[in-house]
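User: Show me sequence and structure for the first protein, then do the same for the second.

Assistant: Starting with the first protein.
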Amino acid sequence: MRYMMKAGILTAPENEKKLAQIKSAFLGAKKTISLADSGTQYQTDIHRMDAPPEKCGDVRYRIYTLRNDTGVVLMEAHPGYAKDDDSDAVGWPICRAPRVDHADLRIDGTAYLLVMHNSQNYSLKDQSGASILQIMHRGISGGWIIETSEPFDAQVLCGLFLFCRYIEQENEFIVV
């Protein structure tokens, strides 16, 4: 199945039917996903777990969540550092933050791995390591193509897209 994400709207390219829309809160990482056919709303956000003082900036103490309108967590992800940038193994880099390149993900109790290949290409891998979803930037024409071999609901597709954007946000340059 192939989908398109452009300007926060998820569509099916073959008939250009609007499936869902993403809206941002004024401040913070919270986003709202509204389904086109039912008007049901979902929310994504980044939550911070209690961390020891020396680990206050560590992304491994963050959780990305997708919740339904009653607050039930439908999907959650735990970001992680790239293998060569794991601060526990190689120390904290002097001139930048360690690079985040993946998140361990759970959708309805099933484990997946969300991988950032670069800032324009992401994939979702199942437990066997097979790629079941690709999110690719369309370049100068704008928007994103989402290709999947699994039948994910529109809110999950939007949530996965937002989790990719959260990973990318973790790698942005920190200005002090």
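Switching to the second protein now.
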Amino acid sequence: MINKHFLEEPNLVDLSKEIYKAVVQDKLEINTRFNLLSDDIYDAETINFILADGLGYENLNSTDSYLNQNVTKSINTTFPSSTNVALSSIAFMRNPIEHGLIGYYMFDKSQYGLINALNWNENNKNLLLNDFFQKQNSIWQVFKENKIHAKNFQPRNLVETPLSNFLYNVSNIIPYDDEQNLIDLMSESTILENKFNFIYYPLIDVTAHVFGVNSEEWQLEISKFEKLVKEISSISNKKTKTIISADHGLVNIDEERRHLLNYSDDLQIYGDQRSVYINGPKESVLETFSEIPGELLEQHELTYLLGEPTNEFLQSIFPDFCFLVENKNIVYPKHLSAQLKGYHGGLSKSELEIPIIELSNY
């Protein structure tokens, strides 16, 4: 059953706003809806925000990781529960329908057609030059304008990609190669003087996709991440607050619950494989999804999860329908065929619920 109160509940955007409010303090007013973090964040001289890709609340809770002892709350991630959607929401402190990146795949009805909104190609990355996107200010612009010393640590292979350039165009990006390189970089004297550090860590997600949640390989990545967090939390002698959360969790999908979609050219099927966006005639949609376990949402129902499209541009990328695939199932549209073990993008608690983990050295 769709949660009609989803947008009213605390989510990743709310967490980001609270963190940034503590960073900028009296230099800028940032409106927040909840009190998700401990008050001692305002005593911190340095704030680290680690986004651990794929470290869902239920996934983490299934382990004996010491990080569970430092979980203070669980909240929702964005809808859909996809990496590019979540990262954009963090960078712009806005919900997906407000910043315009609403899925792993999007479809622009007015000009660009099908778009891989994670790995933008040469043909459609120009969509990011649209005035709608260009007029948005990221938190990195705010830091720069207010002369706040902040750094953005990203895996080297993600630096200078179209999505990275859009989200972090005025940030001080520091590329890193592996965990040890990240620790070495954060130990440098100039970094230790920062007020804020953002660290994107993707390896838990990558391992869950390939080997599955709770696999031996995944458990090893959790252990590596634990050690990394201990190091980062103890590097500085300054009062340091480290907050860890995630963009989503993952679910393992058995072979017999994977559904290949056959559909005619009057349909565009895209989005995420567990929250599937669709454009086209309703009768064709119903026929295509007739044997797939799940629930079809009309546009007005989708607004409970995404919000209302408020201008012509947002209407051009807003889907006609959304099919929510039942938990433990997944679909394969024509443009996707990779056979992975773990997936996300849907509405299950395993995918949507993310932890807030707080550590400090004071």
